[in-house]
Amino acid sequence: MARSALLNVMVQAAFKAGRSLSRDFGEVQNLQVSLKGPSDYVSQADKKAEDVIRRELLKARPTYGFLGEESEEEKGTDGQHRWIVDPLDGTTNFLHGIPHFAVSIGLERQGEMVAGVVYNPVTDELFTAERGGGSFVNDRRMRVAARKTLTDCVIGTGVPHLGRGKHGQFLIELRNVMGEVAGIRRSGSAALDLAYVAAGRFDGFWEDGLSPWDIAAGIILIREAGGFISDRSGGNRIFETGAVVTGNERIQRELMQALKRPVE
Ligand code: 2AM
Ligand code: CA
Ligand code: CA
Ligand code: CA
């Protein structure tokens, strides 16, 4: 597996942020935590990790734009390229001592995702992809799962957060999907959920109310692993709508249909 110089920069930034997160995870009870909104926590760990990543990425490519969850967007002078970064995806898990969280770094060129890295510092699993080069977990090539029918599938999702999203609508969708699949999982890290779809661990995934930094890296991981990822209606307006549905070609289509089914 040959990584481009740019993907290497992203990987090194993710490792460095991962080390910072691991240190803070070991002393999570001492971290300063504040609320951005209802159920929307942010800690020093999130901010420190984002600073590390921004510094590393902009050192390598000073003209690129930078969109990170914890800071004001920097437009950059380049106009074509933008880093899209979630320094800690799964903050709620992190703050509760649950070892399931990740760093997510995506690179967009002219509105298209061209490279992505998702790194879980606890398991030391590194998910990487770049356009045309395939998707990898550590050094192993990833492919989405090949299951052909929803009945055999394990599907991930995210539950709308307090004060956000339509909880009633979600319950209807959950009931629809529950009736058609082998199992449902809810992990608390959308970035890892998408990496798991790319790795063929989850057969599919859907969630609403997401932000570009939750999904940017995951989009390219899934596409390079042969998967399909779209907005609710099968289109490409993922960042605009904050909604994703994904799986292999067939499962993604079946999942979209199941989500739309009216309740009897
Ligand atoms: P975060 O941990 O980076 O905030 C889990 O379903 C996803 O929702 C994660 O990507 C998580 O990202 C995000 N999330 C957690 N709390 C949220 C909130 N209050 N509002 C919006 N998104 C949230
Ligand atoms: Ca957050
Ligand atoms: Ca996130
Ligand atoms: Ca985050």
UniProtKB/TrEMBL annotation:
Mg(2+) binds at residues 69, 86, 88-89, 214. It comes from the Bacteria. It catalyses: a myo-inositol phosphate + H2O = myo-inositol + phosphate. InterPro entries: IMPase, Inositol_monoP_metal-BS, Inositol_monophosphatase-like, Inositol_monophosphatase_CS, Inositol_monophosphatase_SuhB. PROSITE patterns: IMP_1 (PS00629), IMP_2 (PS00630). Its cofactor is Mg(2+). One of its GO terms (biological process) is signal transduction. It is an enzyme of class 3 (hydrolase). Its EC number is 3.1.3.25. GO terms for molecular function: inositol monophosphate 1-phosphatase activity; metal ion binding. Keywords: Hydrolase, Magnesium, Metal-binding. Pfam families: Inositol_P. Signal peptide: none annotated. Belongs to the inositol monophosphatase superfamily. This is Inositol-1-monophosphatase. It comes from Flavimaribacter sediminis.
